[in-house]
Here is the input.
Amino acid sequence: MADLEIRNLHVRTEDREILHGVDLTVSRGEVHALMGPNGSGKSTLANTILGHPSYEITEGTITFRGTDLTEADPEDRAQAGLFLAFQYPVAIPGVSVANFLRMALNTRREEPIGVKEFGGQLRHAVDLLKVDRQFTSRHLNDGFSGGEKKRCEILQMAMLRPEVAVLDETDSGLDTHARRTVAEGVNALHTETGMGALIITHYQRILHYIEPGFVHILLDGRIVREGGPELVDQLEREGYDWLREEAEVAAADG
Here is the structure.
């Protein structure tokens, strides 16, 4: 049984259905890439997995480690071991990165974490990700560059150690150096903790640094092709037009 199981997922927002029967599984130790052009439903899927209230599931299920989370609140999904790295992280002036991380850890514990234990975990995380310790004293995402915001989210993952992380367009707007830094952080966590990852992206660039074992192509709210890393290379050469043509032919034949 997979850790994260999405079965026949149909999702709508307001008066429009966006996802039309998505099936997808992700387990610890696996790296998956979900790719597709803009408007294909990638971010809708990411937000639905984590329980965003603006997205209504009209059919299908989301199960995590044997527990049905289809109707669960976002905090319950996070408690279960899911993590979403947002495309546009929110700034919280007045709250330091370190204090935010400590509060986040305490939501998953019966007793608040002690100062010494927290300090040890934080030192390990910043060393693992090669982050300047002074970074953790800054206010959360306040005045951060795009690369710093994404690095902060990777640091949150390192502290929370989710079973499966969903990274929604985490490479969006990053330069080559920042993209490589984020990718190295994900690779380090995957290697050390066995974290599963679903990397949602429009471009192939971040997948030059994080090699997925499984690739899924989402087009117009449906997964139309699945395979291995070779799909990434094919998309880089040919784009998405060939998939659209295949889908149109299949629809006409149907």
About this structure: The domain at 4-43+50-88+163-253 is CATH 3.40.50.300 (Rossmann fold). The mean pLDDT is 89. Residues 215 and 230 are 9 Å apart (CA to CA).
